[in-house]
Amino acid sequence: MQVLSSRVLLKPRDRDTTTAFYRDTLGLAIYREFPAGTVFFLGQGFLEVVGEGEGGASPDVALWLQVRDLADALAELAAKGVEPDRGARLEPWGLHEAWISDPDGTRIVLVEIPADHPLRVDVRQP
Fold first, then answer.
1. What is the 3-state secondary structure (H, E, C) of the chain?
2. Are strands 96-101 and 45-50 parallel, antiparallel or unpaired?
3. Is residue 126 over pLDDT 70?
4. Tell me: the pLDDT tens digits for 33-79?
5. For 2-21, what is the mean pLDDT?
6. pTM: predicted TM-score of the whole model, two decimal places
7. Residue 8: CB partners within 8 Å, gap ≥ 6?
8. Dist. CA 112–CA 94, nearest whole Å
9. Could you tell me how far CA 94 lies from the centroid of its own chain?
């Protein structure tokens, strides 16, 4: 199988509220809009808020969003009234993480990767 593109689909309880959260609060840029939903740029993929669901969030699903500066991201969100569900901390695997939630309770993990972490360091031999 050759994957050419990808996106995460969210079916929120209230599409307008959730769309506003991702557009206005998180500041995600819109890739495209159509009558049943909105597709946002999400780093190297897309997030599609589409239709309306009944199930709500699952504790088994989270969005992982890498940010350049976690403290700045949290300050920007706090200015918009968003308080973290779990504050910033250095995880045992070496990443700085904080958790927030969207209006349906979907966990959003905000991640800053330190400059010396293997995910950012070229470990190839010269």
1. CCCCCCEEEECCCCHHHHHHHHHHHCCCCEEEEECCEEEEEECCEEEEEECCCCCCCCCCCEEEEECCCHHHHHHHHHHCCCCCCEEEEECCCCCEEEEEECCCCCEEEEEECCCCCCCCCCCCCC
2. unpaired
3. no
4. 999 999 999 988 999 999 988 887 888 899 999 999 999 999 999 99
5. 92
6. 0.89
7. 42, 45, 46, 47, 48, 63
8. 10
9. 19
